[in-house]
Write a structure and sequence with these properties.
L-fuculose-1-phosphate Aldolase; alpha+beta; 409 residues; eight-stranded mixed β-sheet; nine-stranded mixed β-sheet; 13 helices; 18% strand
Amino acid sequence: MSPQDKAVRREIERIGRAMLALGYQNTHSGNISARVGDEVYITKTGSMKGHLGDRDICLPGLDEPRYGLFQASSETGEHRRVLHYAKAMVHAHPPETTLLSFTTDSIVPADPWGRRYLGRVPVLTFEYPVGSPEMEETIPEVLKGVPALVVATHGPFIRGESLEEAFFLLCLLEASSSILLHAKSINITLPDGIPLPNLSPFSPPLDLWETLDPELHGQYLRTSSDLFLLGLSPFRTASLSVIDGPCILFMERASAPEEFPHTLLRLPLNEETPSFPLSLHREVYRMSHSKAALFTLSPEVIFQSLRALDRGEDRIVPVDAEGGYFYPAIPVLPPDASEREIVKAAVKYKMAAVAGVGLLSVGYTLGHAIHHASSARSLCFYRRRLQEMEKLGTLDGYSRFLCARGKDW
């Protein structure tokens, strides 16, 4: 086995474990493929994606049948045709996206991250929506024009220039679908045209660490892994930083399990940049004595901030006891708020939500900052479920649970 062959197999195994950790598959569903030169790698039919080994990855050939073709996924035909023009493809059954596909013929993200990287995602209906000749003919043609599509009642098919990019787009689609599905469940009107922050094209991080401090290395790895596993930010979306004298130690595209590569850069504090995440982090240290900052994209927080915007409210008030004890309210800023306004609110209240865009949390350590982000996700989850229960008529008076201090905070 060549080093290149081994590397692509290990990457497929990492993606399989990550997909299972998020619940995007049952134990044996979905498929993952990659192309290196003229060689195609694809998961074996019925393989356990969270426990892949060398025997679970077939090499069916790009054009001519080769080893393992008849053991490969039932949707190998679609993968082989897509891999003529892409480097990777994933098919999964993420629950929110799959549920949303029952109700619409296209998914148009309301959040700017989904709009920036996905655009409009078509939902296709087939008479036989699993491994049919019609799918093999249609899906590769549609994916020439868009990075992702969804087969109605079945799940998304996504291509990328790397396996990480395909998985990144899958996670963004599920986050965008979650926001749209929440809005449908309680009849909230989502805004059109939230301003797009300046976001760079996707590229997988390298295993690069511009610090020799083993403690900091461990803090970044733990924080990145927790962001991913707790659903605080979709795969490769969060950004983290700590201040280090005249520099910041900045990690973009952070949310990922520890086994994935990460890039941590040492960057000058007093330097301008067009990148929205980096510029926001720099502003934190220019305006405050904070030592650490996180910018995260929890769908729960984004949805509640959009609900506040729809209702003309400037805060998210907790309904649960712990949320109300630590945070009487989370300030909500409009999506066109300046970086200075966002940072000012976050420093004053530990965190601030930008409607539809994300959550900035600050603290003295990365652990301190992620505590705020994880609390925000939890209290927004409780709010959303109670709102749905009220809509269904199984709860009388959702608003009576709102933290009393938060209403006037």
